[in-house]
Amino acid sequence: MKRKLSMPFWCVGNPVGDPFGGSVMDKLSAVEVCELLCDAKSKGLIDFTSAHDDDLVAWDPANPMDDQDPNSPASKTLKQIKDMMDKAGLKMKMITCSLHGNVVFRNGGLTNPDPEIRALAAQKVMRTLRIGNYFGAEHCTYWVARDGFECQFAIPWDRCYKYLEGGLNLAARYIKENKLSIKSGTIEPKPNEPRGEMFLATTGHALGLISRLEDPSFWNVNPEILQHEGMTNLSAINAIGMAINAGKLPFIHLGNQKPGQFDNDNPTMTGMDGVKEIIGVLWMMEKLNWNGHVEFDNHVLRTDCAPGKENAINIRKEYIKHNVESYRLAEAKAEQLAKNANLNKLYSAIVDKQSSLTKALESYDTKALLAAKIDYKKVNETPVNIAALDYEFNKALLGM
């Protein structure tokens, strides 16, 4: 399945610094980033974009309603960006509130123990949702940002998750009360970084919290499949499989990651690891007929950046193209593997075994199960042959 692709403002605008050195590329304004995204749309590379509020316009905590004033600098910039996007046919698919950049949120945004800072976070979230509505965004995302901790003794454990639930409930209520364009919210979990620990570390944590919210049907997850799950050596395919089966995966975030490291955020299929992993995830999506979209969440390799205005434009253009073409390679290979008759025969032999007991298991028929006569010797001595299937997958993956 050829999926629709989203390239966010924050990926393209990133001038690429790291904790050990400053930015390499010249910074671009939001309008300049928008020009690059509109160019990518005109070339058929992308379908959508997304943004943090801060990617588009600066936040003034003393004027939290500036987006509603048509004469404010923020409103004028938003209008300019929207006019450009409308002309190019580029849709803003998702909006997310930056609660990590401003230093006031250094001890958390939605979960900050100071109620006045939580109220500032709420104001910023509501402003972000209005901006999303202005662009017709369908989704809003809560990335865990700085809602975490380094020291377990400094956390109000009897309240911290209630603060988190309250912040998400407030967002959903504000959307519904004001009839905003946003149809669903997503949670993007992460195990650590920028904090030492996060309250919502994994897809499972996020799905567990969603069950406690006022309207669980509104909330979904958007895992960063090779980065965030892989940072603690967890499996991306397990997270995606769980989310799809729960009906909670409208889109995914994509980059590349060496397992067990900090958040590499390498471009798609770029780096020492990740090729078999991403193709395996996309293969599973084909098997499950998942129909969501893919959103990139990574940045240019710092080595591949260079200062200068011309580089600031051309390197970013190549970065967009590289992500899209790398993803399309993986997508085409996954689709090919999903249709491979030999692979499907080996796969079916493992997962599609037939038995008269299937119905009893599915209907919880305890009497039938207790009465069943199972040939233990036969089932115990039947090989499974998973390695043989994986070998055939590798052969097909490598074109052999």
Describe this structure in words.
The protein is α/β, with parallel strands linked by helices and 400 residues long. It has helices at residues 9-13, 30-42, 53-56, 73-88, 115-135, 160-177, 203-210, 236-245, 275-288, 309-338, 341-351, 358-362, 366-371, 376-380, 386-397, and strands at 5-6, 48-52, 91-96, 139-143, 148-149, 184-188, 197-198, 219-221, 251-254, 293-296. A 5-stranded parallel β-sheet has the order 2-3-4-6-8. Helix 8 (236-245) runs parallel beside helix 9 (275-288). The longest helix has 30 residues, at 309-338.
Short account of what is shown:
The chain has 400 residues and is an alpha/beta fold.
Write the layout of secondary structure elements.
Elements: E1 5-6, H1 9-13, H2 30-42, E2 48-52, H3 53-56, H4 73-88, E3 91-96, H5 115-135, E4 139-143, E5 148-149, H6 160-177, E6 184-188, E7 197-198, H7 203-210, E8 219-221, H8 236-245, E9 251-254, H9 275-288, E10 293-296, H10 309-338, H11 341-351, H12 358-362, H13 366-371, H14 376-380, H15 386-397
Parallel strand pairs: 1-10, 2-3, 3-4, 4-6, 6-8, 9-10
Antiparallel strand pairs: 5-7
Helix pairs in contact: 2-4, 5-6, 8-9, 9-10, 11-15
Instruction: Give the count of helical stretches.
Output: 15
Classified in CATH, the superfamily of the largest domain is Divalent-metal-dependent TIM barrel enzymes
- Unreliably modeled segments: none
Number of strands: 10
CATH class of the largest domain, anyone? Alpha Beta
What is the residue-averaged pLDDT?
97
Structurally, the number of domains stands at 2
